[in-house]
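Lab meeting, action items carried over

1. Structure of the two-component assembly. Owner: GW. Status: complete.
Input record:
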Amino acid sequence: MTDIFADLMWRGLIHQTTADDRLPEWLNTGSRTVYAGFDPTADSLHVGSLLPLMMLRRFQKAGHRPIAIAGGATGMIGDPSGKSAERNLLSSDQLKANLQGIESQMRLMLDFECGATSAILVDNNDWMSQFSYVEFLRDVGKNFPVNVMLGKDSVKSRLTSEAGLSYTEFSYMLLQAYDFVHLNREYGCELQIGGSDQWGNVTAGIDLARRMHGAHLFGLTCPLLTKTDGSKMGKTESGAIWLSSEKTSPYDFYQYWVNVADEDAGKCLRFLTELELEELQELDQSRKESPHLRQSQKRLAESITTMIHGDAGLAKAKQATEIFFGAEIQALSDAELGQIFADVPSNAMAFEVLSENGYSLIDALVVSGLCKSKGEARRTITEGGAYVNNRRVGEVEAALKRENLASESMIVLRRGKKKYALLRFE
RNA sequence: GGGGGGUUACCGAAGCGGUCAAACGGGACAGACUGUAAAUCUGUUGGCUCAGCCUUCGCAGGUUCGAAUCCUGCACCCCCCA
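Predicted assembly:
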């Protein structure tokens, strides 16, 4: 049996645990059942969920059974931890759709068919909806001293803030605590893991189980995956990075990791990949001695992209990367180009415009959406920021003609470093 | 109720009769450098049929050869006195 605790330790994945003295041994002397909660507010998980999912994965590989709980019930309420304002409530239809999407993504990382340690995905709405309000108050609420609840950081910070805290959110803790009790009773689950911001909720569950059944459960929190500047991982100017290829293309996903700052790379590698210590140290070394090679980032991007989008997804992302940052694009087929530039905006127009005098580059830049006006297009060209098939074009009066086709019917326009658009002539 | 100040381009902020498509700063966009980074440097930043023309300075009118700049009315905002 792998010493999961030691593994987590050297990776820096342990922030706080309960029963420090007994937990490591307990984990190493039998197959245990552990659980972590996930946020069902969208139909896809985003990069922020990778860490807890990886945690479950590590536990499963070490011979334990993981339970992922996508909180249909708690999702309807909203966890006040770390939130500055009341959350919008979700409709139950929306939730159902979200849970479905999330499950398919979990299958990428957890094994749901491997016998005794198969992963389980549960929805706490299944049991919470059985409760009547009065029953819940009698069985669960009775065991929660309000003075203790008021002492939790998540509550305290909101009470003093302007946004305040609704009774609903205040009760969130009870729901999550009861989840633990329920999973303990139904599945023999004895360990809850979560981010360090979940500490209050985790211990609330442990307390509740002790009061209700005299059970002794465990809790373990891992650090939050934040950048060195303190901001959250997985956010860009254009929004969150999702695991779903519909929302974030494999290329963008791959690129996100390739662009991780040097200071954050080591942590990401330790937290989000299964690379062994030896390789991690080599990468640390490489980052220090030859940062320009960015081996850490590349390894990180490869590892995570493969896990989420498979070998095919990685291959596509890398191919696109080569083209995007490569030399002139030419002699490709429509199919190849279409693949590579799948998420790039494209416009179709008549083939004939390429004949004779051709199609003015200025118009093309505007039509493609790369420039807002002809004036801007003109400027862009003058500044040297306009490219046709990755080759800079500096003449304002340039026109696109047949010989500019990169494939049977397409021309690739680019503005600046990374903004692409595809023109199709049919 | 009385008195005073403001409203300028994506944002902040100059301009106070012509040389104003409007200084300056920020942001944004390009370029150089580089590691697809950071920092730095340079350029651009209303539209077009682009050596020219057209529309912008809260809104509507007016004075003037000529207004973002002066006058009148309207709207919104701020401050002071009651």
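2. GW to write a short summary for the group page. Key points so far: Residues 255, 258-262, 290-294, 297, 321, 324-325, 373-376, 378-380, 382-386, 415-418 of chain A lie near RNA strand B (CB under 10 Å from a C1'). Chain A has a mean pLDDT of 88.
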